[in-house]
Design a protein that fits this description.
The chain is mainly α. It contains seven helices and no strands. α3 packs across α5 (83-98), α5 (83-98) packs antiparallel against α6 (104-118) and α6 (104-118) runs antiparallel to α7 (121-136). The longest helix is centred in the first third of the chain and has 17 residues, at 9-25.
């Protein structure tokens, strides 16, 4: 019996990183870029929705994300970082700050995975160090989804 391929968040995050990396070097209106991008992929609607929420959120908060990355990356402004490292950290940081459904350690682990795969082993260590310093200053559980008090 042949198993049906199930796409998950890792592949979706990979698409997110690819798209944002491409957008950094070839800026164009996001709706046009997304339309062209999805023509090459086969996402299920849930994956596409998640990806577009993250992509649009990262684009919308890019300045804030880069400022925070520069603040926590000792002696490294975000514009001096490798493009892959910066992109994966933007995605992880956006999830850590704005996505209550993703535990921060998951965001960090995924960012480290992509930094190692698409950049270098040293990039994985750098990404982990920066994001973990940020995580320590964020007021939310590190290993679980966030449920604000009183929202039960």
């Amino acid at each position: 019996m042949q198993k049906k391929k199930v796409n998950g968040r890792r592949e979706t995050r990979e698409w997110i990183v690819q798209f944002l990396f491409q957008l950094d070097f070839n800026p164009e209106p996001i709706d046009i870029a997304l339309k062209d991008f999805w023509e090459e992929k086969s996402p299920v609607e849930r994956e596409k929705t998640y990806a577009e929420e993250i992509i649009k959120g990262v684009v919308q908060h890019k300045k804030e994300l880069d400022e925070k990355l520069s603040q926590y990356a000792k002696r490294w402004n975000s514009d001096r970082m490798g493009a892959v490292d910066r992109t994966v950290m933007r995605v992880a940081l956006f999830e850590m700050l704005y996505r209550e459904d993703v535990p921060p350690v998951v965001s960090i682990n995924e960012a480290v995975h992509f930094a190692k795969d698409f950049s270098s082993f040293q990039s994985g260590r750098f990404v982990n160090g920066v994001l973990d310093r940020i995580r320590q200053d964020i007021d939310r559980p590190a290993r679980t989804t966030y449920k604000p008090r009183g929202g039960e």
